[in-house]
Design goal:
InterPro entries: DHFR-like_dom_sf, RibDG_C, Riboflavin_Biosynth_HTPR. This protein is α/β, with parallel strands linked by helices. It has a single domain, classed as Dihydrofolate Reductase, subunit A (3-Layer(aba) Sandwich), CATH 3.40.430. The protein contains 5 helices and 8 strands. Strands 4-3-2-5-1-6-8-7 form an 8-stranded mixed β-sheet, with helices on both faces.
């Protein structure tokens, strides 16, 4: 059985929305996009590359899939991270997309999400990684399908935005790694208790 690993950048107040850029996701009037920028350290990129190397599939919500696909699909061959992202099988969960052809090696999941994810987990293979995709993460957390949370926790409080954990859900976790980085970010890895 494969593990589902949620890999996220989060603020101290549990916000995961638009870490990468000002216009990445302004839904709900969110104005803090790009909040991770001042805290970048090469160790963050190295950890993410390592996590992706231990995985053989990405599971993403529509918005995150479109953002990632828009960045990685046009990359020419030869970029190590771009090559990894483009060659890896991707599963996009969406009720509005009619095709997943915009990013190579993608498969559309448009119904029976929980059952489809359970089926993916039951297949042999490495980890399945989710990043971004707040609605999908909430759904999978509510159905106890997430095996690990790999979080880069940033020393910032944003006050608003999409949260990693849904309101009202109690989750018991066990710390498996904690590593402070020079920029003030802390890598925190938790498994199901």
């Amino acid at each position: 059985m494969r593990n589902i690993v949620v890999s996220e950048f989060v603020s101290l107040d549990n916000v995961m929305q638009a870490p990468g850029g000002a216009d990445e996701d302004t839904e709900g009037g969110f104005t803090h996009g790009g909040w991770t920028g001042p805290f970048w350290h090469d160790d963050i990129g190295a950890h993410f590359f390592e996590a992706m190397s231990q995985s053989d599939a990405l599971l993403l919500g529509r918005k995150t899939w479109q953002i990632h696909g828009g960045a990685f699909e046009p990359m020419p061959a030869g970029d190590p991270f771009g090559d990894l992202m483009n060659s890896m099988p991707k599963y996009v969960v969406s009720t509005t997309l009619t095709t997943a052809s915009a990013w190579r090696n993608s498969t559309l999941i448009s119904s029976n999400v929980v059952e489809e994810v359970r089926s993916l987990k039951a297949q042999p293979g490495k980890n399945i990684v989710i990043d971004g995709s707040s609605v999908l993460v909430h759904t999978l957390a509510e159905h106890d399908l997430i095996d690990e949370y790999s979080l880069h926790v940033y020393p910032v409080v944003l006050g608003s935005g999409k949260k990693l954990f849904p309101e009202g859900l109690r989750v018991h976790l066990r710390l498996i790694e904690s590593r402070p980085l020079p920029s003030g970010v802390v890598l925190m890895r938790y498994a199901r208790a």
